[in-house]
């Protein structure tokens, strides 16, 4: 046999199985070539997470002694001499009982008489308050609150900045979906990086609040465009279980970004410098962008066969894969098939192929999960500025653990919707126990106890998001999965636009927001259990009872005895062949148990055995 015949025989034996296209045949499910691109796209999520969560450090709650109230009827000429007294009687924040937005008339009168020996000329009663004409900020850290005076009636504007960030994410997702019809994912990623660098720096350098929220929205839009294009590349160059692992573990780098953010923020004493540092970090990723590959199926869909061929040859070289001799012809045919496929429209996901009730459930679940993810980070500011670095890192670690738990649900359980829903229900109900904590000062011990409940919610919600991100597409046919994911993610971001306003409810009671969040959590956990009735992992076998050693010996002996004595074909072989056959035969644990309950007929039980035994016997004759 010549070398050419050997090559032809190997190529025939390596023909792709049914359902595997030429791109997957060349790339494989995962390899060294994919790993390089995957890691670089994962790194892009870290600055995006920084920009999303930096509100924790750019707008911290004021601490005691940082705010001084000057009421409208106060004589401004005496404010310098009386500052030491006012620091004691009128400085405050939400952690203390004294209001900074209004000054008590009685307190002002007593202070004035004590320092100036005159009677306070006020007609108001001692129970009334005077509005502050000006609130002076005395703090070493220059934050958004001090820059734009976001206190009292303007306090809600802190939440509005995060709402504009969510609005940018909503618009960015829709823009990326439309742009990907004409711009390649790799080029769109680069445009998103450059836009985030430019708009992000302007977000930190502007001196008006209106421009700040405008550029924050634009920066969020660029962030979303960048990682949406990257997500398309990830799903295009991987397949099978590797794709599940990549999509799920991509959420892990959001958590890594949260853990690293406190380490970055401690080097800056100005919110503007923090924005500039976060946005400028993408310059490194722009330089690394040259090693990010494009999506080969997108290129073929645009009938760009030559770049796709060059990319697949590079993939085969790095992954040591074999390529067909007619690869260019096959790519041309496949490109024609992709371009001829009809384009799906949004209304098709509501065509009752999937029950509309289930689609409503999944939209509701996505909205609740996104709200919890965002508001938990935003509310960590309420635990106090002294522990904010430790608290943020703790939430990041809780999110990491949740991602791995969600990955376990996906890979090794049959009903991952039910398990994720149960975890969310338990976390939501347990969070109500926060009301049982004793009312003490906001010291480290009190903050630590309250942090436990925030971490529990973060952990359960992260596991649920891992399941949602990976398994939502299974509800519809493959041609509709992109539109379904666009729909549910857009609905979740729409809910995010209004969710930051929940943080303002701390003026009613500081535990009211976490109570609402816990309620939303267990409610959407119940909705996930409803989906469990229709979708589960049928490939994952149910775990049976573990047999004892005596049961194993007894049942395996029965199977071997029936196999060895009832088949005349097997008995006709040599003793060595029969002995090797008995050593190599294996059954599942479920079949091992069924021997006690189901009568195994000799003709049925030996059909599979004879088939396994004939194969090596025929191969020996051919030799």
Give structural notes:
The chain has a 3-stranded antiparallel β-sheet with strand order 1-3-2. It is mainly alpha-helical and 623 residues long. Helix 9 (185-205) runs antiparallel to helix 13 (271-280) and helix 20 runs antiparallel to helix 21. The chain has 28 helices and 3 strands. Mean pLDDT is 78; it is low at 10-15, 73-98, 119-127, 568-574, 596-610 and 612-623.
Give the number of DSSP strands: 3
- Write down the overall mean pLDDT: 78
| Shape verdict | globular
Number of helices: 28
C-alpha Rg (nearest Å): 32 Å
Helix content: 55-70%
Biggest sheet, in brief?
Answer: 3 strands, antiparallel
The end-to-end distance, rounded to whole angstroms, is 15 Å
What percentage of the residues does DSSP assign to strands (E)?
under 5%
Which structural class fits the helix and strand makeup?
mainly alpha
**Low-pLDDT residue intervals, each spanning 5 or more residues:** 10-15, 73-98, 119-127, 568-574, 596-610, 612-623
Arrangement of strands in the largest sheet: 1-3-2
SSE blueprint and pairings:
Elements: H1 3-13, H2 22-27, H3 32-53, H4 55-58, E1 67-71, H5 83-89, E2 102-104, H6 105-116, E3 129-137, H7 144-148, H8 156-179, H9 185-205, H10 209-237, H11 240-250, H12 252-265, H13 271-280, H14 282-288, H15 296-301, H16 305-319, H17 327-340, H18 356-379, H19 388-412, H20 416-431, H21 444-471, H22 481-498, H23 512-531, H24 549-566, H25 568-571, H26 575-584, H27 589-594, H28 602-622
Antiparallel strand pairs: 1-3, 2-3
